[in-house]
Design a protein that fits this description.
- The complex is a heterodimer of chains A (543) and B (294).
- Chain A has 4 domains: 177 residues, Rossmann fold (3-Layer(aba) Sandwich); 74 residues, no CATH class; 164 residues, P-loop containing nucleotide triphosphate hydrolases (Rossmann fold); 76 residues.
- Chain A is built from 20 helices and 22 strands.
- In chain A, the strands form 5 sheets. Chain A has a 6-stranded mixed β-sheet, sandwiched between helices. In chain A, strands 16-17-18-13-19-20 form a 6-stranded mixed β-sheet, sandwiched between helices.
- The longest helix of chain A is centred in the middle third of the chain and has 18 residues.
- Chain A starts with a strand and ends in a 7-residue tail after the last strand.
- With 294 residues, chain B is an all-alpha fold.
- Chain B has one domain: MetI-like fold (Orthogonal Bundle).
- The chains are: A alpha/beta (543), B mainly alpha (294).
- Chains A and B meet through helix 13, strand 16 and helix 14 of A and helix 8 and helix 9 of B.
């Protein structure tokens, strides 16, 4: 008997709305990890919520089909029975462990509560069980962790707590909805290994939902590929990666950026557009009463970018890479150091003094849903900077229409509002806005991180094309080594505010000398697989 | 989620979520409330045409008469037509309610925007607002009226002042949340001047919650005006206001309770319907709140 058997499941928007899951079937055997892969809007999360009986009431409803968990019909179950099933047979972990944990309750008590609620164990036995599961999820110093509140733990530790809570009742099925997406690569690697290990120990069936093919190649036994609510293809992991049958799967795999750096480009003999010297940013240094030590977010960072070239800053969260970008954009004021843009140091300028120079450096933000003012038409957003610099509205709007075409959108899109576009289209608009002033320097802060892989590739192409055309220097901030390998000429690796390694992309990513860089590359999921060519990576040098 | 604002609620309210059938759309209760409020507004506007007597004309022969064809609600101690007085009283209430809410929203918006965006202004402005909020609004209003002298404008001014801090706090919280939105940073990066960022990118975020807040301010202002009139610290006693009528009727409460009942009913209906409309507006403008209730 399979742990999960879903047959012909259909889920639709309530009150006769469109179907978002269109008759999919899926089985998971005990002790098997099944990955459900798809881009945003493919219906993969909806499928998992339907299995848990957690579809948002009043907006989504099940139209038909069958869901059996461990042989028990989940759709026919009464609310009470479903609640019991959720407790004992299935468990779920989410993307963001901080919001899934109760912030005012010690984590040990939260795990204890699960046991108290669903078992008749006496207190001493529960305590033993809590310590035991904390031990199993590989947390250090469990006596202390048990008494901690969620905010006192790191993201990885919180996700371990979530896993402990999910597994403490020994469920038949564990649903993991993008559990590692919010984590750093090194932490991600540990969590993936943990899930794999625990699964072997407990024989749990795992439904792992992800958009990341790298993660899939690391963890899956079998893979289901979804697109727009349809099941496109399924199969054992090796077969699916080697010989995908459907065009969509091939496209999805080909879009995964390769870890192999782009071929080197010739260095132009020109003065750098951006020259950062000994940049330093300390947070909270001046308290009211005493000179506090503060946090060194950026510590003695220096690099430069030549026109027409791209420098990538890679690092995990908290490495200070975004702070560097924000210092350069003067969205925050650096504590020390120089930032020369096109020869002019912009650190000393006041807000007014900076005004004439702002046009030379522009920025593309991470979240295309929040970087465009939802109340302004796209055209209004694009012409904001040109109008600030004295270009007439009609002329600027004319140029905005040209830019729209240039970034691959219809010219009349200038009259529409941001919500009428998809994430990828919005990021194109944000790029159009950034290049409207023909800047010398473009700062892209995680500019493709919020996008699906196929869209990611297109946006990277667009940036590359625009750079070839107008020759701006680009500072590309990313946590994703694959993306960095695709677009960067030079790479700077940052950790805890300091540069640990810098150099040409092929050297830093191909033959890293620093142990931290090496650990980052090691942790990149799916590094042994050449997705675009449907074969394992040819191991050139034993890293 | 970033901008989460809960409008401060005024006193008289019904649990609308229990009364609204099914949710979604403009429910029954807000509909009735709108009709009631519209009737009050129309009555106030066309008062001379629908009343049978001058509201201030005294006729000693007709003192404390019961309802009759000539005086539908009877007369007061000076023989004035109670119905005319109640209808004319709506004029003062509505002028003060609407005037105070417009003034406090406009002033509060300006202060709140500056306070939310400029850190150095924030500390000073918010302490002043805290100070204002610490004073009981009726007491502050009495003090202002006794300083400047009673007139409809003084009363409006006196009621506006204590309402301002509530608006400022609301606007400030919205600006604080919106200030760090990437689109605001994008505007900074585009070289947009600060006043323009405030005007174009931040202020529109406040419109929806402010229009809800304005209804609550309006209801609260009408109530405060009635209290001031009742205490004799409001509009001069010659002008019929709901508070004045009740204050005068208080002496005859035992023999003729209608003198308090009718203006009291008008006041309650007016405030209740404004608050209900405010709640409905909040549900429509801030769908997250509405969904949470269902």
């Amino acid at each position: 008997m399979p742990a999960v058997n879903i047959e012909n499941l259909r889920v639709a928007v309530t009150r006769g709305g469109p179907e978002v899951v269109k008759g999919i079937s899926l089985t998971i055997e005990r002790g098997e990890t099944v990955c459900l892969v798809g881009e945003s809007g493919s219906g993969k999360s909806v499928t998992s919520l339907a299995a848990m009986g957690l579809l948002p009431k009043g907006s989504l409803e099940i139209r038909g089909g069958k869901i059996e968990i461990d042989g028990e019909d989940a759709l026919a179950a009464s609310p009470a029975a479903l609640r019991r099933m959720r407790a004992s047979k299935m468990a779920m972990i989410f993307q963001e462990p901080m919001t899934a944990l109760n912030p005012v309750m010690r984590v040990g008590d939260q795990i204890d509560e699960v046991l108290k609620e669903h078992t008749k164990m006496p207190a001493p036995e529960r305590e033993k069980r809590v310590l035991d599961i904390l031990e199993q999820v590989g947390l250090p110093d469990i006596a202390r962790v048990r008494m901690s509140f969620p905010h006192q733990l790191s993201g990885g530790q919180r996700q371990r707590i979530m896993i402990a809570m999910a597994l403490v009742l020994e469920p038949v099925l564990l649903i993991a909805d993008e559990p590692t997406t919010a984590l750093d690569v090194t932490t991600q690697k540990q969590i993936l290994k943990l899930i794999k290990d625990l699964q072997v120990d407990h024989g749990t069936a795992v439904l792992f939902i992800t958009h990341d093919m790298g993660v899939v190649s690391e963890i899956a036994d079998r893979v289901y590929v979804m697109n727009h609510g349809d099941m496109v293809e399924d199969g054992p992991i090796g077969a699916l990666l080697r010989t995908p049958q459907k065009e969509y799967t091939r496209k999805l795999l080909s879009a995964v950026p390769s870890l192999v750096p782009r071929p080197g480009r010739e260095k132009p003999q020109k003065a750098p557009v951006l020259d950062v010297n000994n940049l330093e940013k300390i947070y909270g240094a001046t308290s009211l009463f005493a000179k506090a030590a503060g946090t060194r977010a950026v510590d003695d960072v220096s690099f430069n970018i030549l026109p027409g070239r791209t420098l990538g800053i890679v690092g995990e969260s908290g490495s200070g890479k975004s702070t560097v970008a924000r210092c350069i954009m003067r969205l925050i004021d650096p504590s020390k150091g120089q930032v020369r843009i096109d020869g002019t140091d912009i650190v000393g300028f006041s807000r007014q003094g900076l005004q004439p120079h702002r046009a030379k450096f522009q920025m593309v933000f991470q979240d295309p849903y929040r970087s465009l003012n939802p109340r302004l038409t796209v055209g209004e957003s694009i012409i904001e900077a040109p109008v600030n610099y004295g270009i007439s509205r009609t002329l600027a709007m004319e140029r905005a229409r040209e830019l729209m075409v240039e970034v691959g959108l219809p010219a009349d899109a200038v009259g529409r509002y941001p919500h009428q576009f998809s994430g990828g289209q919005r990021q194109r608009i944000a790029i159009a806005r950034a290049v409207a002033m023909e800047p010398k320097l473009l700062v892209a802060d995680e500019a493709v991180s919020a996008l699906d892989v196929s869209v990611q590739a297109q946006v990277l192409d667009l940036l590359d094309r625009l750079q070839r055309k107008s020759g701006f220097g680009m500072l590309f901030i990313t946590h994703d080594l694959r993306v960095a390998a695709q677009i960067c000429d030079e790479v700077v690796v940052m950790s805890r505010g300091k540069i640990v390694e810098a150099g040409p992309a092929d050297r830093v990513l191909g033959a890293p000398s620093d142990p931290y860089t090496r650990s980052l590359i090691d942790a990149a999921p799916g590094r042994d697989w050449d997705f675009a060519n449907f074969r394992p990576m040819a191991r050139a040098e034993g890293a | 989620m970033a901008s989460e604002t809960t409008p401060i609620r005024a006193r008289l309210r019904l649990p609308t979520h229990l009364l609204r059938p099914g949710g979604g759309g403009f429910g029954m209760v807000p509909m009735i409330a709108s009709v009631v409020l519209a009737l009050i507004v129309l009555a106030a506007l066309f008062a001379p045409f629908i009343t049978l007597h001058d509201p201030v004309q005294m006729s000693p022969a007709q003192r404390l008469k019961p309802p009759s064809a000539g005086f539908p609600l009877g007369t007061d101690a000076y023989g004035r037509d109670l119905m005319a007085r109640v209808i004319y009283g709506a004029r003062v209430s509505l002028i003060i309610g609407i005037g105070a809410s417009i003034c406090s929203v406009v002033i509060g918006l300006a202060i709140g925007l500056v306070s939310g965006f400029f850190r150095y202004a924030d500390a000073v402005v918010m302490r002043i607002m805290d100070g204002l909020m610490a004073m009981p609004s009726v007491l502050l209003a009495i003090a202002i009226v006794s300083l400047v002298g009673p007139s409809i404008w003084t009363v409006m001014f006196a009621i506006t002042i204590p309402e301002i801090p509530r608006v400022v706090r609301l606007v400030r919280s919205i600006v604080l949340a919106a200030r760090d939105e990437p689109y605001v940073e994008a505007a900074i990066a585009a070289g947009t001047s600060l006043p323009r960022i405030l005007w174009r990118h931040l202020m529109p975020n406040t419109f929806a919650p402010l229009s809800v807040q304005a209804t609550y301010v309006c209801a609260s202002a009408i109530l405060t005006e009635a209290i001031l009139s009742f205490l004799g610290a409001g509009v001069s006693t010659e002008t019929p206001t709901w508070g004045n009528i009740m204050a005068e009727g208080r002496m005859y409460f035992l023999i003729k309770p209608e003198l308090i009942f009718w203006p009291g009913l008008a006041l309650s209906l007016c405030i209740l319907s404004i608050n209900l409309i405010g709640d409905a507006a909040r549900d429509i403008l801030d769908p997250r709140m509405a969904r949470r209730k269902e």
